[in-house]
């Protein structure tokens, strides 16, 4: 089995064989400390993770949601509402949730379809291209700007900083790789990243009114409800997670359409556009895990999780649990119901942008189905070096048009 604490275990993609073995033989698995961090428990079965998510009073988010150990001072400086439990989490969520509700997001559908049509058409002008750069990255970036209410000319800069932030373990995204260099001077910044300093400065400018944002964007809506450091951390969360998870879901869809026999032809029947986005998101599972911290001694699978122990909920494993999903490693576009755990579904921390991600993915799928006869890989994809975020970084493909 691969060491799940080691980011290098994920450079060739998710080690699904390791998770399958753990689900079978060690559903509660202990990983010893690694590179100065304390050890942790892993939950890998769908049923166990679902049960843990339902008791935040036992498995708490209020000491961080990543493997990294933090002092209380660091935690308080960097936390977002993701790193809180009910009722505090619920109060903040109620303040921001209306901007991401399904009826609100649905109003963006004409714009999303227009953008998807233009982006896909432009990408397909080249016979061979990197589908991440030309398609998967572009639509979420543009929609991020509309949701935040920031100027389009700032988007490339913001996304690059967001990539450096959430990709802090990968030299593809940052020179300040957290397990390779000394990041002590950034310990109060999100992800211990210098990109956090730059994003904080941008958020400060928004708060002061020096950076103009649109009146109907989320940043303007939450000013006055979220202030100071909480606003800056919320901004960093939106810039990073609001772009990457959708990008990697679209990239996984394009990767599977190019590699799974008959999948594109099945999509082109046009009967599964409502269910297909969830299936691709299930198989992408961009956020590999969230960490919880036990607040009391708990018995599971004949072992004792001690109060204070870190417990990782491996959503990526739950999404491929054969006890929850038939034929779990293949894309079944008509799969319904599809109660996967990608985007944190099943718990109080479900992703605010879930409806937007599904809408963006569906728009891209429909454009690909309309325009493309076949897709095929030109070279293997490259994957993020991270045990927290899984994504296809580059995806060279060849498209044959209708």
From TrEMBL:
E.C. code: 1.14.15.14
InterPro entries xrefs: Cyt_P450 (IPR001128), Cyt_P450_B (IPR002397), Cyt_P450_sf (IPR036396)
UniProt entry tagged with the keyword Oxidoreductase: yes
Coiled coil region boundaries: none
GO molecular function, one term: heme binding
CDD domains cross-referenced by the UniProt entry: CYP142-like
Top-rank taxon, per record: Bacteria
Keyword annotations of the record: Oxidoreductase
Protein's UniProt keywords contain Oxidoreductase: yes
GO biological process: cholesterol catabolic process
Record-linked Pfam families: p450
Protein family membership: Belongs to the cytochrome P450 family.
Name of the featured protein: Methyl-branched lipid omega-hydroxylase
Organism this protein belongs to: Pseudosulfitobacter pseudonitzschiae
Upper lineage: Bacteria, Pseudomonadati, Pseudomonadota, Alphaproteobacteria, Rhodobacterales
């Amino acid at each position: 089995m691969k060491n799940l604490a080691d980011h290098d275990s994920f450079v060739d993609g998710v080690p699904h064989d390791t998770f399958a073995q753990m689900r079978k033989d060690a559903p509660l698995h202990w990983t010893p400390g690694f590179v100065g961090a304390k050890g942790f428990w892993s939950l890998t079965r769908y049923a166990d993770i679902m049960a843990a998510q339902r008791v935040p009073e036992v498995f708490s988010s209020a000491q961080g949601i990543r493997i990294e150990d933090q002092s209380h001072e660091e935690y308080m400086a960097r936390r977002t509402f993701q790193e809180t439990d009910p009722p505090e989490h619920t109060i903040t969520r109620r303040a921001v949730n209306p901007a991401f509700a399904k009826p609100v997001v649905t109003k963006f559908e004409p714009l999303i379809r227009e953008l998807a049509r233009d982006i896909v058409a432009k990408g397909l002008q080249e016979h061979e291209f990197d589908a991440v750069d030309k398609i998967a990255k572009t639509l979420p970036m543009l929609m991020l700007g509309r949701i935040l209410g920031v100027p389009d000319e700032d988007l490339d800069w913001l996304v690059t900083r967001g990539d450096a932030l959430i990709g802090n373990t990968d030299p593809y995204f940052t020179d300040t790789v957290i397990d390779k260099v000394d990041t002590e001077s950034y310990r109060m910044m999100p992800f211990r990243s210098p990109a956090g300093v730059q994003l904080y400065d941008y958020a400060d400018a928004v708060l002061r009114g020096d950076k103009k944002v649109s009146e109907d964007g989320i940043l303007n809506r939450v000013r006055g409800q979220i202030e100071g450091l909480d606003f800056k951390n919320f901004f960093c969360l939106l810039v990073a997670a609001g772009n990457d998870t959708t990008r990697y879901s679209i990239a996984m869809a394009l990767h599977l359409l190019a590699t799974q026999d008959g999948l594109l032809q099945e999509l082109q029947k046009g009967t599964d556009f409502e269910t297909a986005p969830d299936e691709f998101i299930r198989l992408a599972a961009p956020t590999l895990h969230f960490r919880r911290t036990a607040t009391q001694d708990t018995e599971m699978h004949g072992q004792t999780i001690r109060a204070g122990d870190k417990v990782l909920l491996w959503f990526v494993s739950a999404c491929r649990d054969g006890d929850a999903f038939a034929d779990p490693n293949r894309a079944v576009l008509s799969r319904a119901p599809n109660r996967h755990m990608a985007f944190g579904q099943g718990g109080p921390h479900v992703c605010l942008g879930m409806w937007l991600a599904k809408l963006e993915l569906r728009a891209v799928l429909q454009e690909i189905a309309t325009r493309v006869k076949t897709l095929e890989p030109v070279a293997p994809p490259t994957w993020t070096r991270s045990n927290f975020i899984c994504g296809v970084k580059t995806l060279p493909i060849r498209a044959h048009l209708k």
